[in-house]
Design a protein that fits this description.
252 residues; mainly alpha; 69% helix; Protein unc-50 homolog; UNC-50; transmembrane; transmembrane helix
């Protein structure tokens, strides 16, 4: 008998207790990409909300999925569809703040989706999938699904997306873009918060897997990030202004 989930997130609308191969699961996932009537957008929305306010509760539902569907990775593309919508909306905000033309906006959007999110995400997910399966597993009976590693990346990427591509934009032209201490303090603090979110949610994602050990090592980059934050403030380096300039120059 399976234990009842204690997470306040709603459960997915569809439940099944079958066991499929990885290829079959991928094919089923891809087939549902454009079948919006079969997606549980309410559940995906609640996941996004809790990734911002209580990310540890999201992974309780990943445990529930393992019990009911024999996989940790998502089988419903609703989260990915909403994630793509967020990327489009926040990219419009970037275009307004940076005063981009329509075609530069399209160029910027393609960069954000295929390079910043998917491209780097594939590299990060593959890195963690390989390293954790090779060096962190407690036994050879179970391994980490690559799809779950990519889900962890998407989960960890969402709060930084909201922080940097949404909230930060309201302060950029009026405050962050200037050569003041408060400008770099605010801009660098946004980045510190975003990167800390990414590291912490990544840690939660893998520490929730029973087949892994020593997952606390995933938090090692956090003190390094904090040290860099302090040094950047002392050196007068405005991370946000530097990266905004980089974003602008790469789409020229």
């Amino acid at each position: 008998m399976y234990s009842r989930s204690t997470s306040p997130l709603p459960l997915p609308v569809n439940h099944q207790r079958d066991c499929m191969s990885a290829a079959t699961k991928r094919w089923k996932y891809l087939r549902r990409m454009f079948k919006f009537n079969q997606m549980d957008f309410e559940f995906a929305f609640w996941q996004m909300l809790y990734l911002l306010i209580a990310p540890q509760k999201v992974y309780r539902n990943f445990q529930y999925r393992k019990q009911t569907k024999s996989q940790f990775a998502r089988d419903d593309p609703a989260f990915l569809v909403l994630f793509a919508a967020w990327l489009c909306i926040t990219s419009i905000g970037f275009a307004i703040v940076l005063r981009l033309t329509f075609w530069k906006f399209v160029h910027f959007l393609l960069y954000v989706i295929f390079i910043d999110c998917i491209g780097i995400g594939l590299i990060i997910a593959t890195f963690f999938w390989y390293i954790l399966n090779r060096y962190f597993r407690t036994s050879n009976d179970q391994d980490i699904e690559w799809g779950y590693a990519f889900d962890v990346h998407l989960n960890a990427f969402f709060p930084p997306l909201v922080i940097l591509h949404f909230f930060q934009l309201f302060f950029y032209n009026g405050l962050i873009s200037h050569d003041w201490f408060i400008s770099r303090y605010l801009g660098n603090t946004f980045w510190l918060t975003a990167v800390s979110y990414y590291i912490y949610i990544t840690f939660l994602g893998y520490s929730s897997l029973p087949m892994l050990k020593r997952t606390h090592l995933l938090l090692v980059p956090l003190p390094i990030v904090i040290l860099f934050y302090v040094v950047s403030l002392a050196a007068g380096f405005n991370i946000t202004y530097f990266l905004m300039t980089f974003y602008t120059e790469r789409i020229v």
